[in-house]
Amino acid sequence: MLFTELLKMAWLSLTANKLRTFLTMLGVIIGVTSVIALVSIGMGLQKNMMESFSRLGSNMLIIMPGSSNRGGPRGAAGSITTLTYNDAEAIKEKIKDISYVSPTVRTSTQVVYGHENWNSSITGVVPEYVAIQSLELKSGLFFSEHDVDVRNRVAVIGATVAANLFASVNPVGKKIRIGNAPYTVIGVLNSKGSSSGGQDQDDVVLIPLTTAQERLIGVTYVQSINVQVAAADKMDEVQSNIEKLLRQRHRIRSGAEDDFNVRNLTSIMETMSSMSTMITLFLGAIAGISLFVGGVGIMNITLASVTERTREIGIRKAIGATYSNIMLQFLIESTMISVIGGIIGIVIGVGAAQLITKFANFNTVISVQSIIISFGFALFVGVFFGLLPARKAARLDPIDALRYE
User: Fold this and answer.
1) Rounded to an integer, what distance in angstroms lies between the CA atom of residue 156 and that of residue 154?
2) Are 84 and 220 in contact (CB under 8 A)?
């Protein structure tokens, strides 16, 4: 019964000064909103990064030409041309626990169909590239090993290229020009959307590797070799075996620097996940500071309220109110400010995260955990910063309080 009466008194006290109560509450509202919105952005960034890596395939090793740059600026990864199609074939034949191997070369050039043209990324690959990249065909077929062997001029195009060159026309069977040579479109890929970096993954034309090397670009090397390992626990072993094989094939002496670089995509994913988690925590911590500032505001206003209501406190103590009664009354007031402000902050924070997703073309992730933590911290702030004013009110001498003007 006493607690109910104290709640009513706290509510009447807060509503008696609506503007002051709202301004006090504003710090908590901004703090909770900031925590939820910023953490949602951070978690959305982490999710987008992980999805982009997962699109590259699971258990992936990427072999790049050039050293890992251990000896200074010379020979940075990808700066020299030391990998060949035969290297990829040797890896496929001699290394165990490998599911797929796909060497690639890339260039960018204009693609023409009739009066339409589009500048796109041209990638030379082998059929295993489909499995490695988890590609799906919307229509048509992917090219075969025979197309690679005989250097056929065939192409599989992405959704963006199809939309810009063909509009509503079915591209399969049509002729396009790449580098002034005709290519037959035999397939169209399903859309994969944009990567976390905003790159359009559908703006691509895939052609047989040997066709790209000899008929389009005019090179004998490959720019990368993608390797999909059969099991995650075999990643390190397969990576070590590939490095040994390539050192033998490239006749690299013991102690000499490698002319290639094997990148473990799983390790990169773990590193990026760790970095994005740190960014999320950092954003949450920055937002948490505003909650702390809001708590200082609660303490300031509650102290002012104690001073204003000194005579009221004296009367209550004179008619029998105990130390705990007075302290609980002011603690309830400060906690009520935090609870109401926290609820409003949750609503605004969730709404802000959804608006970012809708209008900023960035997927946020609203976490129940972040909502609970931010609300719990707001509640803690209300209790913690309400303690000092509550103790001050409870320790007032009733005689001095009654004399106060």
Assistant:
1) 7
2) yes
Q: Would you place residue 275 in the very low, low, confident or very high pLDDT band (cuts 50, 70, 90)?
A: confident
Secondary structure class of 329 (helix, strand, coil): helix
Burial tier of 50 (Cβ tally within 10 Å: 0-12, 13-18, 19+): middle
CA-based max dimension of the chain = 105
CA distance 189 to 125: 14
- Radius of gyration (C-alpha) of the chain in whole angstroms: 33
Q: Residues 317, 404, 322, CA angle at the centre, nearest 5°? A: 10
Q: Which residues of 99-133 are buried (b: 16+ CB within 10 A; e: fewer)?
A: ebbbbbbeeebebbbeeeebebbbbbbbbbbbebb
Cα 268 off chain centre by: 14
The predicted pLDDT at position 403 comes to 59
Residue 380, both tokens: 């803690």
Q: How many CB atoms lie within 10 A of CB 350?
A: 17
Name the phi and psi angles at 329, rounded to 5. Answer: -60, -50
Q: Report helix angle 2-16 to 323-359, nearest 10.
A: 60
User: Taking Cα atoms as reference points, which of 297, 293, 285 lies closest to residue 373?
Assistant: 285
Unique residue bearing structure tokens 């990808």: 78
- What rounded mean pLDDT belongs to the chain? 83
Q: What are phi and psi of 155, to 5 degrees?
A: -145, 145
**Distance of alpha carbon 173 from alpha carbon 157, whole angstroms:** 12
- Phi and psi at residue 123, to the nearest 5°: -120, 125
- For the record, the structure tokens of 267 come out as 């390790």
d(CA 339, CA 335): 6
What is the SS3 string spanning 248-308? Answer: HHCCCCCCCCCCEEEEEHHHHHHHHHHHHHHHHHHHHHHHHHHHHHHHHHHHHHHHHHHHH
How many Cα atoms are found within 13 Å in the side-chain-facing hemisphere of 97? 16
pTM confidence score: 0.59
* Of residues 223 and 197, more confidently modeled: 223
CB 317 within 8 Å of CB 68? no
* 215 CA to centre of own chain: 40
Q: How many CB atoms lie within 10 A of CB 395?
A: 10
- Closest by Cα among 334, 346, 335 to 373: 346
**Looking at the predicted structure, is the pLDDT value of residue 171 above 50?**
yes
Other C-beta atoms closer than 10 Å to the C-beta of 3 total: 9
Q: How many helices (H) and strands (E) does the chain have?
A: 13, 10
C-alpha to C-alpha distance for 258 and 234, rounded to whole angstroms:
22
